[in-house]
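Dear support,

Our group has been running a series of protein-ligand predictions, and this particular one with adenosine-5-diphosphoribose is the one our PI (initials K.S.) wants archived with full inputs and outputs. We had some confusion internally about which version of the output was final, so please treat the block below as the authoritative record. The input we submitted was:
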Amino acid sequence: MRIAVLSGAGISAESGLKTFRDSDGLWENHRVEDVATPEAFRRNPELVLRFYNERRRAVLEAQPNQGHREIARWEGRHRVVVVTQNIDDLHERAGSTSVLHLHGSILEGRSSKNPNLVFPWTSDMRVGDLAPDGSQIRPNVVWFGEPVPKMEAAAEAVESCDAMVVVGTSLQVYPAAMLTQFAPPEAKLVLVDPKPPAVPPRGCAVIAENASTGLPKAAELLGL
Ligand code: APR
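Confirmed final output from the archive:
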């Protein structure tokens, strides 16, 4: 079976990583939408780099949880593509081998001039740390208002799936939230979230549980 997974911050909640909207979207009393933007980086690069340094350290200390491992388990018998909005590497560390990071990766840095100049970066980032092209480095993450280059590949993965599992996302951020609309009409859809959206995507079965217990139930429902 071809399975497309769309995951969000909620799947990493049980690994101790904060979600965006559970913690009412605030960080040090800043709205995330006000920190994760190109304008904020131009206006106050120290603040933005500090925000991501904290998140990078938390990711490096976190471990994958049962939810990440359950999705990796499905690869034994099925073709699985994980489209994640998360910038952590917990899906990969749990064993998933096909992971599309729609919003980038906190463990990569990039030139602030050339978005294609990307390199691994696991330590704190500071103003004055330069990319090979001499520009100030920045986290290789997609900020609000920036293009989402992997959206086309993500849509193709969903368009060709037999089943789609949506886990740990409030489906409030576009274009990621549109992805369920690309699923073929005959595809089975399952959503796993302890507080599911009021209006789940069309025809979606809802398992109102945490990822660690809800994903094995989704697998049972889909016969994985
Ligand atoms: N298991 C599963 N889902 C959970 C869990 C859990 N243990 N805990 C919380 N959730 C759910 C919440 O109920 C919520 O629906 O995870 C979802 C998290 O939603 P958001 O915080 O909005 O995270 P996400 O949907 O990934 O945000 C999308 O917004 O801030 C931007 O770029 C950022 O990628 C992020 C995007």
